[in-house]
Amino acid sequence: MVQPDILPTPENDMPATTRCFTTHGFELESGAKLPEMKLAYATYGRLAPDGGNAMLLTHGFTSSHHASGRWGAHDENPGWWENLVGSGKTIDTDRFFCVSSNMLGSSYGSTAPASVNPATGKPYGPDFPEITLGDIVRAQKLLLDDLGVRHLHAVAGPSFGGYQAFQWAVTFPTFMDRVVAVVTAPKGRGGPLAVDSLTTRFAMDPNWNGGQHYERGGIQQTMTALRIETLKTYGAWESLAGAFPDPAAREARIEAMATAWAREFDPNSMIVLRRAAIRLDAERDFAKIKARLLYVLSRTDKLFPPSLAPDVMAKLTAAGVDARYVDLDSDFGHLAPNPDWQKWAPALREFLA
Asked: Which of 30, 116, 119, 234 allows an S-S link to 334, with CB 3.0 to 4.6 Å?
């Protein structure tokens, strides 16, 4: 069931709507059940009468469904694919009906650890049930069904959004014609140590309280410091150089971005989503894929380096998948697909044609 006007409507020159889909009794792969499951989402463009022009846009680990456009008069942050999604752009919203879905477990309006547990009347916190990439895409499928989308022209997303795209390809292989997986991999990386190190770092904050940090005001300082490190690892220092050539101004901008994010994002969501990520393994099901696939990696990405491509492409080819690889020659690391959009947009436009 779609509930309108749950979140602010974007106010910019590209029409979009933000709403919240709600369902009840959502069963997870673990066997646990969420009494209520919400997904926040935004839409761009209009669904064609035959429903054949829909695309699903999937977002990164700690971002949101804000794929494009300025959301309100005071919004300083463009969407994560601002340069690619919009009227007349590569993902042309005059042609495509784009659904940008916040994912289950995230911190931007969807059911997540910060949501109230109906059994206790308090936030789930560390008691939020474990979820998988399969759970995330099945929740999105329910959303699309509710919107009247019966088939997808493509599923496209960067980073964790690419994880979702690969999972879509193997979970609902006949539901989409194309998959665009960008700065990502078909298999989770890091292992259990990635979750342990995150939890250990949070536990060092005096407000952590075993994960029930909500009543203590959160762990803002720890989250801000973590975000600054992450942004720099992602390539924010390089990608902001044009707008902020002065190092001190650039540092201040990164700190401001990190501080704003830390006010919004729940550390328990990071743990839940990281656990889901490390269990992802779409490679074992490559033979199920029916869609054409575009795989894009950035030359300077420290998270998903181009060295991953030969093995992934060989396995896709062996499984009979119609796949193409694009090497994005960029200095902007993990963040490259949006600021250096011109370097891969022609390949994307051709792929979507």
From this structure: 234
Q: Is the pLDDT of residue 73 over 50?
A: no
- Residues with catalytic function: 159, 301, 334
The contacts of residue 283 (CB under 8 Å, 6+ apart) are: 186, 187, 312, 315
pTM over 0.85: yes
Does the structure show a pLDDT above 80 at 3?
no
CA angle 154, 338, 233 (to 5 degrees): 115
Q: How many domains does the chain have?
A: 1
Mean of the pLDDT values across residues 276-283? 97
Contact (CB, 8 A) for 29 and 135: yes
CB count, 10 Å around CB of 214? 16
Q: What is the mean pLDDT of the chain?
A: 92
Is residue 240 domain-resident?
no
Distance CA 291, CA 102 (A): 23
Number of other CB atoms surrounding residue 39 within 10 Å: 26
If you compute the radius of gyration of the chain from its CA atoms, what whole number of angstroms results? Answer: 19
**34 domain-assigned:** yes
- SS3 of 80, please? coil
Residue 86 near residue 302 (C-beta atoms within 8 A): no
In a domain, 207, yes or no: no
